[in-house]
Amino acid sequence: MDQFTFGSVLTACGSLLALGEGKQIHAYVIKIDNKDNVFVGSALVDMYSKCKSIKSGETVFKRMTQKNVVSWTAMLVGYGQNGFSEEAVKIFFEMQGNGFEPDDFTLGSVISS
Asked: d(Cα 69, Cα 10) in Å, to the nearest integer?
């Protein structure tokens, strides 16, 4: 399995609210030492957020060794979708403080939070 397969499977888990299956995929990601892949990490944050397990998503996000606009946005959207508006705004400013420029989707997400 590569980063694209993991991304697709984790997206499906999030859409189906299949937290148990998503956790199994996460365990497999750790087992094969693919946990430092920014695309896989972003997909994990998104899956946990959609499954209403925002603390798990936050843990994955904080442990990511590399982040990009997608990973920052996944965390921001996760906070917003789970009713944590203040955290969404905080992470938006933290994102900018770390040198990442928000794209149109990120800006729309923070405004709707």
From this structure: 18
Helix, strand, coil percent content, the chain, rounded in steps of 5: 75, 0, 25
pLDDT beyond 90 at 100:
yes
Query: From the centroid of its chain, how far is CA 93?
Result: 17
Q: 78 is written with which tokens? A: 């996760």
d(CA 76, CA 95) in angstroms, rounded, equals 9
Specify the pLDDT at position 34.
84
Mean pLDDT value of segment 61-74:
96
The whole-angstrom separation of Cα 18 and Cα 30 is: 19
The SS3 call for residue 21 is helix
